[in-house]
Structure formats: C-alpha cells, structure tokens
Design goal:
The complex is a heterodimer of chains A (242) and B (229). Chain A is mainly alpha-helical. Chain A is 81% helix and 0% strand. In chain B, helix 1 runs antiparallel to helix 7. Classes of the chains: A mainly alpha (242), B mainly alpha (229).
C-alpha cells in the first residue's frame, strides 16, 4: 500500500486515531437539522399557502411580503440576521415575563432559521400545486356537499401532491446543502463544521473536504431515490403522460 | 437603530458592492461559456465526453457550494505551494487571493447548474429545425452556430433570470474566504462598531434592489427576442 493511501485511511478511520466516526456523526446531525427544518418549512408553507389563496386581503399582503423578502435576500445574510434577532427576541420576551436572559439552543436556532427560509419556498411550491388542480375536481367535491376541511383532506391534499412533489424534492436537496451554512455561525457539530475543525487540526484540507463533498453527494443521490419512489406513490392511479 | 456608521464606512460598502457585482458577472459569464459545451456534449457527445460532463453536473448539484468553495480555497491552497516555482511565478499574487478561489468555485458551480439547464434547452429545440438546417447543407458547426445555439439560448432566458439571482445570493459565501465583498465589508463594520442588525439589514435591502434590477434587465432582454404572439 502506498504511503499516502495508508495515511488517508488512518485519517478516516473509526475511533480516536481518525475522523471517521466524527464525520459520520456530523452527517447524522446534518440530516437531523435538515429534516427538522424541512418539516418546519412544510408546515409554514402549507399554512401560508392556504392563507395566500383563501385568506383575507391583509393576510395575503403580509404573506406576499414574507415570500418576496425571504427569496430575495441571500440565505447567509438571513441566517445571521435571524440568528441574532431571533435570540434577541426570545430574551426580550422572557424579560417581559420577568425572567433572565437565556442562551438559546444553537440547534433550535438553526432549525428555526432554516425552516423559516424553507417556509417561503414551500409556500410558493404548494400554492402553485393547489392552483394546478383541475377546477372540476373541486367543484365536484363541493357538489357532494363537502366542507372546507374535508375537501382539503380528501381532495386537495392527494390531488395537489403529484404537482408539488418535484418542487418539494428540490427543497429537500436545497435544505441539506443550506444546512452547511450553519457552520459559519458555528455551535453545532454538523458535517461542515466537523470537517472544518478536522481539517484545521490535521491540515489535510483537500482530502477531508473531498470526502465531505462525497458524503453530501451520497445524501443527495440517496434522497433522489426516495423522492422518485414517493413521486410514483403520489401518482398512483393517474394516467401515464408518456 | 443607529445609522451614523454609514457616514464612516460608505467607501468600504461601495467597494464591497463593486466586488459583489464583479464576482456575479465573472462567474455568470465564465460559467455560461463552460455550460454551453457541457450541455452540448451531454446531448450529442461521444460517451467519453458525455459521462464526465454528466458526473460533473451531478457532483456540483449534489454538494454544498460552501464545501466546493472551501475545497478550492483550502484544498488547492494546500497543493499549490508544493508545485515548484509557482510561488515565485507571476501567477502567485493571483493565487494568493481568496477572490481567485471564489471566482473559480462560483464559475464551476454555475457551469454545473447551467450545464444541466443547457442540456434541456438543446433537447428542447424542435428536431425539424435542425433537420431543415442540415437539409440546406449546413455543416454541423454551422447548424450549431446559426440554429441550435441561438434557439437554445433564447429558451433559456427566463430560467437564466432565476439562476442569476440564485448566483447573486451565493456571492456572500465569498466572505468566508476573506473576500471583501458586501458581506465582507458588513462583517468588518459589525466587528468595528458592535452594531449587529443595522449593517445586515442594510445589505439585505441592497441585495433586494440588485435582484429587482436583474429581473428588470432580463425582462428587457426577453422583449428583444422576436416572437410570434
């Protein structure tokens, strides 16, 4: 075995000698942050899309401001802004209740901020998907006497999902990659921060960043598989286009 | 809110804005120049060009830009000093700057994303037009230059608008490799004045204004394309 390969393998080995286990746990943390932020974003998106389509005028304007603002400002700027502003706001609120300032959990802050940004994008995806439902289906549901919530559950949700799936899959890929930005703020041992620290200690920048890039790539390719399957599931019973 | 720092730091902010715009312009133009051949070989190229191009696009689109940037800056920065003579060559002043690595990483990223977009655009040109061009007796190169490429680029304009804005929103990453763009200037101001929000809010507004201008610019470009309505 050549010398450099042996060195690389030691560096990536499991246990105290190498960074294999650290990178692995970092990757798990990345997936955890991304998944939580993704579902927070989906919740915000579903609510905001409903508000944007059926809400009163002032709510529509407010939500329009939210989606436009968040989508026009760089994620990194938003992340720093919301990270500090969010922490500040929690402490001001607590101060109002006569409690002392607290250290906001870095994990909660990261998930909150990423979810808030994701929410703006999912709002647009879900809104467009709802608008894409053939109008006759909604009229048929109303003709059967369905109320709003029942129609939302039985008709709008399943009919909108095939239209929303490609966009939602993209958003998942975006959030896994955006979670790397959290390492600029620091505090959470996700994949990028772990790599940054490991590379700083060992000076093996090229190797470690390449390995990390391939871990992210693996997450992406694996997610693609799952989303392809999910998309097939949501399209069950529909006529094939091609 | 306190805004008096604006009077002291406006030269830095102006210079930062300039750097941000240069980063955006260089990465988009150089990236598109790479994206056209990357898209083309995926459609018509031989397998030994097709598969590397496809792999490149997958790699770029599947990894965070921040990691790509650090891979360039720290990774290549680790290798370059080992190349004998490079340190004393005329290239070194460029290779020493974070700016070079930011342009390199952003260009490759644009090439990866736009390569995929161009692949779709090349595929989207109606087959009959290409056949007609061949039937007139154009050489493959002429078909590409006179029919295929112009038609593909025209289709891609609306997408390119969104992609340019995405690229603009990626430029602040450059400040993590010591580039003094808008974000870099802001981070310096924040460290000097201990103002946390105001500088960030200020550049957020600037980015929104640039986004608005880009959208208007592309709308103008789209109007220049003659279409039958």
């Amino acid at each position: 075995m050549p010398d450099w390969l042996a060195k690389a393998l030691t560096l990536l080995s499991w246990g105290p000698a190498g960074y294999g286990d650290e990178l692995f746990h970092g990757a798990l943390r990345t997936i955890e942050i991304s998944a939580l932020a993704y579902f927070l974003g989906l919740t915000i998106g579903a609510l905001a899309a409903t508000g944007k389509l059926y809400g009163p005028n002032w709510l529509k304007k407010l939500l329009n401001g939210y989606t436009t603002l968040v989508r026009a400002v760089p994620e990194l700027v938003l992340l720093l802004l919301l990270y500090y502003a969010g922490t500040d706001m929690v402490n001001t609120l607590l101060g109002g209740f006569g409690k002392g300032p607290v250290e906001v959990n870095g994990m909660a802050a990261a998930v909150g901020v990423l979810g808030f940004v994701q929410g703006a994008y999912s709002t647009e995806v879900i809104r467009a998907a709802i608008l894409a439902i053939p109008h006759g289906q909604l009229e048929a549901a109303r003709a059967f006497g369905m109320g709003g919530p029942l129609m939302a559950r039985r008709i709008i949700m399943p009919a909108m999902l095939p239209f929303a799936m490609p966009g939602l899959a993209n958003l998942w890929l975006i959030v896994t990659k955006d979670s790397a930005l959290v390492s600029v703020v620091g505090g959470i041992a996700e994949l990028s921060l772990v790599t940054k620290q490991a590379a700083g200690v060992t000076k093996q920048y090229l190797l470690l960043y390449l390995v990390t890039a391939f871990i992210y790539l693996t997450i992406t390719l694996f997610s693609n598989r799952i989303f392809n399957w999910l998309e097939r599931m949501t399209r069950r019973g529909q006529r094939k286009l091609v | 809110m306190v805004w008096d720092w604006l009077f002291t730091y406006w030269p830095q902010l102006l210079y930062g804005l300039w750097i941000t715009l240069v980063l955006l312009f260089l990465s988009m133009t150089l990236g598109m120049m790479l994206a056209v051949p990357i898209g083309l070989v995926q459609v018509t190229g031989p397998w030994w060009l097709k598969y590397p191009a496809r792999g490149f696009c997958t790699f770029i689109r599947g990894t965070p830009l921040l990691i790509q940037l650090w891979l360039m800056y720290y990774g290549l920065g680790q290798i370059f000093p080992m190349i004998p003579g490079l340190r004393h060559s005329f290239l070194w002043p460029v290779l020493r700057e974070g700016f070079f690595y930011a342009v390199l990483a952003f260009t490759l990223s644009t090439a990866g994303y736009e390569g995929e977009v161009m692949r779709g655009a090349f595929l989207g040109v109606p087959r009959g037009e290409l056949e007609a061009a061949r039937a007139i007796g154009m050489s493959p190169w002429q078909v590409l230059r006179r029919v295929w490429l112009p038609r593909a680029l025209r289709q891609v304009l609306p997408t390119l608008n969104g992609e340019t804005i995405l690229q603009l929103k990626s430029t602040p990453l450059a400040y993590t490799v010591t580039v003094m763009d808008l974000m870099g200037a802001t981070s310096m101001i924040r460290q000097d004045t201990y103002r946390i929000y105001e500088p960030l809010i200020f550049i957020a507004v600037i980015y929104m204004v640039i986004t608005f201008i880009i959208t208007k610019g592309f709308a103008w470009a789209e109007r220049q394309v003659p279409v039958k309505r």
